[in-house]
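Report of the visiting student (M.T.), summer placement. My assignment was to run the structure pipeline on a short list of targets and document each run. The first record concerns OsmC family protein.
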Amino acid sequence: MADKQYRITSSMTHGWKVTADVRGHKMVIDQPSATDEGANPLETFLFSLAGCLSAIAKMAARDEGITLRGIEIDVTGVLNPAGLAGKPSEDPVGFKSIDATARIDADLSDEEKAAFFGRVCHRCPIHDNLLRPTVVTHSA
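After the run finished, the structure tokens were exported:
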């Protein structure tokens, strides 16, 4: 298959609000201590993982002939804010750990649900980006 490229352009003009138009959808990232018009970047990052896992679960269920009535995913990230605040820390600046827990509404045993969710995680691009280094470049 040919590579597919995804691109967004964001804008921050005043305050802490960052906006983007993504395929006609207005997205907002903000800080709770500012105008609180959207989730903060870290919450958005965790939501992206949950959203991707949910979509992949629907695809995988279709591919495997599983009737998936619904899925809820809790994602918890643990972060030491020292690095984010510019203070010295032995911890990474990003999340130290991320835990994703799924509640799957399907006619599967607990063991089958766990195996299914494992396959879902294996197919999820965002999950994969968290497990393996991705080359990220930056310029100004």
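The mean pLDDT is 96. The first helix runs from residue 41 to 64. I thank the supervising group for their guidance throughout the placement.
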